[in-house]
Amino acid sequence: xxxxxxxxxxxxxxxxxxxxxxxxxxxxxxxxxxxxxxxxxxxxxxxxxxxxxxxxxxxxxxxxxxxxxxxxxxxxxxxxxxxxxxxxxxxxxxxxxxxxxxxxxxxxxxxxxxxxxxxxxxxxxxxxxxxxxxxxxxxxxxxxxxxxxxxxxxxxxxxxxxxxxxxxxxxxxxxxxxxxxxxxxxxxxxxxxxxxxxxxxxxxxxxxxxxxxxxxxxxxxxxxxxxxxxxxxxxxxxxxxxxxxxxxxxxxxxxxxxxxxxxxxxxxxxxxxxxxxxxxxxxxxxxxxxxxxxxxxxxxxxxx
Length: 304
Hints:
This protein is mainly alpha-helical. It has twelve helices and no strands. Helix content is 80%, strand content 0%. Helix 1 packs across helix 5, helix 2 (32-54) packs across helix 5 (106-147) and helix 3 (59-83) packs parallel to helix 10 (249-260). The termini are close together.
């Protein structure tokens, strides 16, 4: 248990540092939006592309792992849709709960995995991004436009969204470079690594900066319900699928971390764009991130 805590505590301390810096208004509110953009469109894609381009990919291992991740996410989608009729909440509120339970914070996941297992773990984590990001985007946009927006999104709109997602494009580029044997020649590999290495620290600082503690207790039962689904039910379902698909070793541990992290901060932006409950979404992200300080080490100790 102690090695797990020693690996995860620095991740959450960097998140806390981002929270403190934002509350001190240093160096100013204008910092955070451009920081998020450069990280999302440049630094994080560089990390994913580099990691996949230079990795030793074993198709059998990542195939079973990909199946587990997809099955776990779709099982959560099914559970949420079945439970909707019993939940006393509006359409926009449900869309926020849906995002809070399905979407995952890849910055927290990759930082934790890099701290625990280094480059081999980071390679499998990049594969997880390639699998989980498209699924999360498709189901989230579909539910948001169905229950919070005026017009449900059609296949063309969803395809356009995926085609413009920098994380998906970076993963595809890295996989193509790897499988074709092209890779990243000397200077390019070094450049991508230097750029990518900045992404996780900045991403964690941005996660902390986006926390809004003051609103968490306003609808605490929804926060606790969503957090229980994301932080406890999701890891349990993913571990069940690992047993079913025969995934073990490092791949299983990476799946567990990806399942156990809190919800993505990008959920707030999507809720704002598509008519979701933004205040509730901010509360779910904040509450889940705070609770994950306790649940992530426990899930890894118990199920790992």
